[in-house]
User: Which sequence fits this backbone?
């Protein structure tokens, strides 16, 4: 999935609905998703949402007045291994693997070019604890 950070979620939803000639698969406060040709998914997240999730992003995104403009969200088998590889390749840690309120465990890093990388995997049964939207988990998995 590719996630674009947008100033106005409703305006962005209307634009991509008209462009893609299709309704969104998901449209809830904080996230809109569309299927794209070839099996890729497009997510639209309000800038305020990513600021709540990763507040340190504003100071880390190179050359940006605000948060990074895009996120590469990868569903993987081992988020910690992917995060380790990203760090070894020169990424900056934003948030370690932790259970998220949408049912996945996700780690966040910033690539050297200012883009957010998310490594997501299904939560283990023992980690199925609820986290309020916008709240950061108190302890990583």
Assistant:
């Amino acid at each position: 999935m590719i996630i674009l950070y947008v100033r106005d979620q409703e305006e962005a939803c209307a634009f991509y609905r008209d462009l893609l000639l299709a309704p969104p698969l998901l449209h809830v406060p904080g996230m809109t998703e569309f299927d794209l040709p070839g099996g890729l998914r497009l997510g639209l997240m309000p800038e305020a949402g990513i600021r709540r999730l990763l507040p340190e992003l504003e100071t880390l995104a190179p050359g940006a007045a605000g948060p990074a403009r895009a996120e590469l969200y990868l569903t993987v088998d081992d988020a910690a291994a992917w995060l380790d590889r990203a760090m070894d390749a020169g990424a900056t840690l934003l948030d370690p693997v932790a259970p998220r309120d949408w049912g996945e465990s996700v780690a966040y890093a910033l690539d050297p070019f200012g883009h957010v990388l998310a490594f997501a995997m299904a939560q283990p049964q023992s980690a199925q604890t609820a986290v309020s939207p916008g709240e950061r988990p108190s302890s990583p998995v």
In short: DSSP finds four helices and eight strands in the chain. Residues 36 and 42 are 7 Å apart (CA to CA). Helices lie at 9-20, 47-53, 57-60, 79-88.
